[in-house]
Amino acid sequence: MRISRWRFDVGSEFKRFITWAEKKRRDMKFEPTPPRSPEPNGVPERWAGYLNQTARAMIIDAGLPTYLWPFAIDTAVYTVKRIVSPGETKSSLQKYREDLGWNESQAKTSIKHLQIWGTRCYKHIPKEDRVQAEKMEPRAFIGYLVGYEGDNGHVYRIWDPKKRKIVRSRDVTFDIGKTARENDDPDPISTANLKRPNEPNSGAPTVIDLRIPSRIETTQREIEDSIYTTNRLQTISQTPEEDRPIRTIEPEKESHPVPVAPALEAVTREPVPTRVSPRDTKGIPPPRLH
After folding, report:
1. Distance between CA 154 and CA 147 in Å, rounded?
2. Which terminal Cβ of the chain has fewer Cβ within 10 Å, N or C?
3. What is each CA distance from 265 to 247, 258, 268, in whole angstroms?
4. Run of H or E including 79
5. Alpha-carbon 127 to chain mean position
6. How far apart are CA 133 and CA 199, in angstroms?
7. For residues 212 and 257, which has the higher predicted lDDT (pLDDT)?
8. Are 32 and 9 in contact (CB under 8 A)?
């Protein structure tokens, strides 16, 4: 099929296309519209407005940030071209393919793989991208569907809110019917800049749960006095009540009061004179003073 007439504005994005068509001597006729006059180009202008409305509704309904609008526009085109309009039996994409010479089985389109734009999903993390020593780390991250690649959507475009980037993958599990607005996740815009938890000495209040289970009621003093002590506190286990021997603890008897000595008056002691041994008694201990 050859298209003989093209109508578009005088935008610079069409210059390369016009040059290519003239160089290849295609049977095409170009009809540029006057500048700032969209009225003669009514069909494409209305089509662009329809796609903008569709993408805007998709972003608002999904609760995703507006800077993902290129992916919303692309998905809107991908979806609309595969939907069969009322009163038609074939989609516009199928008609276009048949005009190119495809047979009916090849040109037929499918929408079975489509999901709600912005659906919450779990993207598998390949083994090559994981740390093998961290066995308990997640093997998938939470993302949101923002596009497709391929005729049957064999490759999905997933938006990672934490890293703020688009990843391509075929190993995706969808949480069907749930988007960022309909689930319990925090706002994806805020999750892109997650703050680290409060660290010690950071000035922020930190709550530490130091509660002891209710079944452990033995104090350190009771453990030391207990006849079941094995001198290893880590191995102490409580004996069931029915198996414990009865032990009577009698109150301590009052002992006789200890007399308190009266306060002694301060006694001033005279300094002891220093004894000097004569030369002839050097080495002989002095006599003991009484």
Report:
1. 11
2. C
3. 51, 21, 9
4. helix 69-80
5. 19
6. 25
7. 257
8. yes
184 has which bridge partners?
none
Q: For residue 68, how many other CB atoms are within 10 A of its CB?
A: 22
Amino acid at 179: T
DSSP code of residue 251: P
Q: With 0-12 CB in 10 A as exposed, 13-18 as middle and 19+ as buried, what is 120?
A: buried
- The helix (run of H) or strand (run of E) holding residue 60 is helix 42-62
Residues 290 and 287: their CA atoms lie apart, in Å, by 9
Nearest to 168 by CA among 183, 155, 186, 152: 155
Does residue 30 surpass a pLDDT of 70?
yes
Pairing outcome for strands 5-8 and 119-124: unpaired
Closest CA to 76 of 178, 6, 146: 146
Task: Enumerate the domain spans of the chain.
Answer: 119-191
CA distance 156 to 150: 9
Residues 157, 160, 163, 164, CA torsion sign: positive
Which residues are paired to 167 by β-bridges?
Answer: 158
Distances (CA, A) of 253 to 250, 256, 257: 9, 10, 12
Look at residue 61 in the predicted model and tell me its pLDDT. Answer: 93
The helix/strand/coil state of 29 is: strand
Question: Got the DSSP string for 125-186?
Answer: PPGGGS-TT-TTS-SEEEEEEEEEESTT--EEEEEETTTTEEEEES-EEEEEEEETTTSSPP
